[in-house]
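Quick one: structure tokens for this chain, please?
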Amino acid sequence: MIVRSPKSPARQPITARSKQARSLWLLGLVVALMCLCALSVTVGTRDVDWADISAALAGHADTIGQAAVTVRIPRTLLAVIAGAALGLAGTIMQGVTRNPLADPGILGVNMGASLAVVVTVAWFDISSNEAYIWTAILGAGCSAVFVYTIGSLGRGGATPLKLALAGAATSVAFASMVIAVVLPRNDIAGGIRSWQIGGVGGATFERILPVLPFLAAGLLISLLSARKLNSLALGDELAAGLGERVALARGVAALGAILLCGTATAVCGPIGFLGLVVPHLCRLLVGVDYRWLLPFSAIGGACLLLSADVIGRIVARPAELDVGIVTALIGAPFFIAIVRRQRVREL
């Protein structure tokens, strides 16, 4: 009788096949993202052909088709980076809180960023892109700390149910405050209401360029937190026993999520449910290893937001639905399904 050691060759092909399968899924998502980018550029109120696309990419805007492509290219880029940011932020928040219902919208982070922007626009008359970004990040951070503090009170600490309830109550309160600030200001009411729906329409490279350093910083912090999130998933006591500084690890990972969420909200408005749906779908493909889950969530979020944008253009022609409406129609039933299936258990 031969006893195999834990590191015997018989176990190695299983790990190799697992990595190969994940790599293939990752490649498939990248290909899907490229196809969606091409679809986003070609589909809209006016369909365009490849001649218009190639001419627009070369810098020409002589025809209506070429002009349409010139407008859609920055819109597509914004949908990609905002979707990646929100998908990644949702995964980080679920890992930090060990809450399957965690999402920038459900936990009130989006609405905190929105309230901060609205207040500074109405009372301090900010206008620069950099001011919008810093304000949204500060609002998102304060809201995250507030919700986590409220959810941690009482017996049992920050349970998934308490965090979800605290986040929902905070979102409602902040939304009411936004309305109270905007109502007396007819001069900004129209623009604020349109921005609050959440969308990528009207994107320009001038709006996108200032957000790239913040998104890059958030992306880097988030990806470097993958191993720490794997440790946190084992529980605070076991993570501390493995030498992890639990509070520091949780704070650094949360900082990455706040940077991503606040920046995306500043440029697109509060887009809900995307950070909830994407992590759960990606776990079905790659499991719970955050070293794989984080890049999958970034690409998956970009794919989902691009898909929502394309769907919004098709179903309401010649008008269009903002992506915030489409993601809400997708995410609300998904949220109900998770509540019924998970019963708000910890991850």
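The two ends are 40 Å apart (CA to CA).
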